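User: Fold this; tokens only.

Assistant: Input:
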Amino acid sequence: MSAVTFPEGFLWGGALAANQSEGSYLAGGKGLTTVDMIPHGAHRMPVKLGLEKRFALRSDEYYPSHEAIDFYRRYQDDIALMAEMGFTVFRTSIAWSRIYPKGDELTPNEEGIAFYRSLFEECQKYGITPLVTLSHFDVPMHLVTEYGSWRNRKMIAFFSRYARTCFEAFDGLVKYWLTFNEINILLHSPFSGAGLVFEPDENPEQVKYQAAHHELVASALVTKIAHEVNPANQVGCMLAGGNFYPWSCKPEDVWAALEKDRENLFFIDVQARGAYPSYAARVFREKGVEIAMEPEDAATLRHTVDFVSFSYYASRCASAEMNEQNSSAANVVKSLTNPHLPRSEWGWGIDPLGLRITMNMMYDRYQKPLFLVENGLGAHDEMNADGEINDDYRISYLKQHIQAMGDAIADGVPLIGYTTWGCIDLVAASTGEMSKRYGFVYVDRDDQGNGSLERIRKKSFWWYKQVIASNGRNLDSI
């Protein structure tokens, strides 16, 4: 294995999201948000997909986001743990409904602003750079019930007001911003991705792509505003990444994989290049989609992002014959199971070379710096008799992917930094489970919300500390 060389000043850290970690779902003036309506259990997927309307909470269901891991009240201790590992960057998100509880108010909630200012100041105290997502699967419920969420063009103005408030309130504390987390998930999980629910008689593709247009215009407008507020601001887009491999060398399979890649890259093509890609016209025509645009939209879209961020957990496989029956249910982005790869406990293919492939493809396509803002292994972690959690499987996964990152850098791909997903155990977005753990820090909490919330350092905690201290040169297990 070749030696890994990361550039001086490379940002090492981890990532959480407000909706999966903060809890205190109505504290400090916060309003209800989409994730607060998504239960654990059998109804979770229909609600996430926008197939089952959930506009009111039910007393007979458990909602994991309501308490999550209590980061809202424990952030100082949690950031101290990050500092102990040596983090130089921490990715988190702002809950829109903490700043604007309903989403359409004219003045923000000062208590919400004070919370995030304190959080970012705590990061700065330890020399940790915040990387902040404005919308991480998080839409105020009032905007869903009153306006239909992102299907409504009025959302552009609401989101722009919210973003400007954040840029101004946290100026000097936050330099790196992301507009929408995994924006392409809108197509695959419409309610959790963008607050969309569907009526029986409408074309869901029309709704999704019209909402996508509104988000893309909003993202470009917000990028422009960020640069106006402070030219030093760096704004990125965010893709749920991972290339599709053709199932075989049959030309129809190669074409199917190309189309699946385009389906996801469509969003970044607009955000990074500043215009709709040429293939979009045919896709819209075949899906019966007609995008309503305003005359100024084309000019607005030309405000492109400064860098391209992405998540990478696994590569994917596509064939001309893939369907709901033969595709993996392990992720909302459907894929055939690759027989050449080992799989995680949740069925995700473990493919570090796929990360190198994805990074090279993205830089070839966009010629903008990359930032890997989610990567990790969801697994069941067991405590031994001595109270230790020896997660060597996680160390192995991360080691291989950091090596692949280094290889891509050696290929000539500029990478700003790396934030592992769920650096402290958190509620899994896909399943709502706590038992699907990603962190270097164990949180005593089960899938039903029981537990002390005590934080316990895993073996990977000490390993990652060593990785950061050596700037990625020492990947040996401890």
